[in-house]
UniProtKB/TrEMBL annotation:
Keyword Oxidoreductase assigned: yes
Matching PANTHER family: 5-KETO-D-GLUCONATE 5-REDUCTASE, ALCOHOL DEHYDROGENASE, PUTATIVE (AFU_ORTHOLOGUE AFUA_3G03445)-RELATED
InterPro entries hit by this protein: NAD(P)-bd_dom_sf (IPR036291), SDR_fam (IPR002347)
Any Pfam family matching the protein: adh_short
Record's protein name: Short-chain dehydrogenase
Keywords annotated in UniProt: Oxidoreductase
CDD domains named among the record's database cross-references: SDR_c (cd05233)
Upper classification of the organism: Bacteria, Pseudomonadati, Pseudomonadota, Alphaproteobacteria, Hyphomicrobiales
A GO molecular function held by the record: oxidoreductase activity
SUPFAM superfamilies referenced in this protein's UniProt entry, alphabetically: NAD(P)-binding Rossmann-fold domains
Family: Belongs to the short-chain dehydrogenases/reductases (SDR) family.
């Protein structure tokens, strides 16, 4: 079913893992896809896979922490594929493991730069054209530590919680112009990031729970997030704009519950009702 026919999607971090599956699903559903990442060979392979399935895609080597690089990429995307309808920010970094006094300050800040600043850059580059056209959807991937403490992953967690708040702020700013923003937690997926956590000495020392979760059978297929994001791109979950959706969600059940979620002001970063009364 080509539910995204005649649309244009941008997927960052699209060279492997979750991002590759998101890009392929967007193409399967009819979108023309711009695949962005820093490693050319990986995004070219993603494009080859999409083209092998009959889709259309282009690969752009981009450093999301460099705004001029991001801006140039969006100019090229508009020229080669057309105006962007869907932006999926899947890029991510998680290299600083351990208590803050053991983390390399450069690694800790680099996680924040890639995750948070990179998302700000792409949102800034994409949103003006979306606003001018009166439509568009932006999906920002979050993850562990977004809504709870993650002591030995503080840089990653801080950046992902900030992306959640950025998503809320962005949506509240653009929703009146027809542009909606969503946060998606794909769940625990075997990826290059988790493999590094499993194999590195710091990961083994400070994040043993990751291996335990995999041993217990927790391993979310990336197709779940990809299918969810395709539904978001198609407008199925517009009621939940500004809120968190999860790869593990039953999409049919979520659709039935989404008005209740909004009524309860759920799936958002909030103080409790009692705490708000004290502010």
């Amino acid at each position: 079913m080509a539910q995204l026919l005649n649309t244009v999607a941008v997927v960052t971090g699209g060279g492997r893992g979750i991002g590759r599956e998101i890009a392929r699903q967007q193409a399967r559903d009819g979108a023309k896809v711009a695949v962005l990442a820093r490693t050319a060979v990986e995004i070219e392979e993603t494009v080859s896979l999409i083209e092998g399935e009959g889709g259309r895609a282009i690969a752009l080597t981009v450093d999301v922490t460099d705004y001029s690089s991001v801006e140039s990429a969006f100019i090229r995307i508009a020229a080669e594929l057309g105006p962007v309808d869907t932006l999926v920010n899947n890029h991510g970094s998680f290299r600083a493991f351990g208590p803050i006094w053991d983390c390399d300050p450069r690694d800790w800040w680099r996680d924040v730069e890639i995750n948070l600043q990179g998302t700000f850059h792409t949102c800034r580059a994409a949103s003006p054209a979306m606003i001018a056209r009166g439509r568009g959807r932006i999906v920002n991937l979050v993850g562990g530590g977004t809504g709870n403490s993650f002591p030995h992953g503080s840089g990653y967690a801080s950046s992902k919680a900030a992306i959640m708040r950025l998503t809320e702020c962005l949506n509240d700013t653009t929703i009146g112009h027809g542009v909606l923003a969503f946060a998606v937690d794909p769940g625990l997926v075997r990826s290059a990031m988790t493999e590094m956590q499993l194999s590195s000495e710091a990961g083994k020392t400070y994040l043993p729970g990751i291996q335990q979760l995999f041993d217990d059978g927790v391993d979310i297929d990336p197709s779940r997030a990809a299918l969810l994001i395709a539904d978001i791109a198609d407008g199925r979950f517009d009621v939940l704009a500004g809120r968190l959706l999860r790869g593990v969600d039953d999409r049919d059940a979520l659709e039935k519950e989404m008005h209740s979620v909004v009524a309860a002001d759920g799936r958002a970063l909030r103080f409790s009702a009692l705490e708000q009364l004290k502010l």
